[in-house]
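Okay, is this right?
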Amino acid sequence: ALGQARTTAARRGVRLGLLLGACRAVSSAAAGPPPTRTVYLVRHAESRWNAAWRRLNVAAMLRETDHGLTVVGVDQAGTLAGVLLAEPIALGSPGAIITSSPLCRALQTAAVALCAAGARGSALVVLPDARESGGRLGFGRDSAGTPTDEVERNLAAELRGTGADAAATALRRGELTLDLSRLRHTQHWWLPLETAAEKRARLRRLLDELFRLTAAGEDGTSPRVVVVSHSYVLRDLLRDHVDEGAPFAASELRAALARRTVPNCAVFALDLAPMASCANADGAATHIVGGRLLAGAAGKFPA
């Protein structure tokens, strides 16, 4: 009798397990795939460090930190405005948010592009987690920044020094403003010598924040978020933060970016989605599930 009772209980357990599995499958199918949101990542225009690296001028590379753009870079940033004004970003229409790394070369690129696009009255949102990955070159001097209280003054000086008069004037008049609220908790927001674990955590926070910024408003439309950042940021994102189950994981574009420097002012669309299987304390971690080259590197990478 005892054996028969155990057999009956086992059968009931199997049926219950099958029923629960079916319910989960139906629930998962009803929920559908996780929501996907698109952000646009731009590499900054040519900086003085880039020019010195190209000439193998080590002295110039080590002479300064938080370097700005070259005159060529200012021209590149002005040309970038045309890409930002066009679809799918459509900078001139409501719903576009421009964010930037706090490093001067990225801020200067964003400021010049915004003014060239006629986007006066814009607030440039500064994201500390979008800064360049530390410890790559020059003992971290390429990723060392300016204290928070000096960021705007340093940007103004760089704009004036490279002839970006329209952007310098807009900044002085308050027609272009910097939202430094995310930096206010500390003056020393950068980390020149960054460990691999620190970098992965920072870029995970960046993706989570970009995903939040693209949340739909009351009218149901999602903002179009642009982030002006750096070559190694994009390369590290695509190496460590892609959903390996997505078709994009095996794409030629991802493979190419892992091997090459991202050209100045190249523009990429990145599709983001939360992954519950990689949840952290704040919920599902955001991963990249798709990517496309939009502009700035014709012939360099596959479409």
Summary: The radius of gyration is 23 Å.
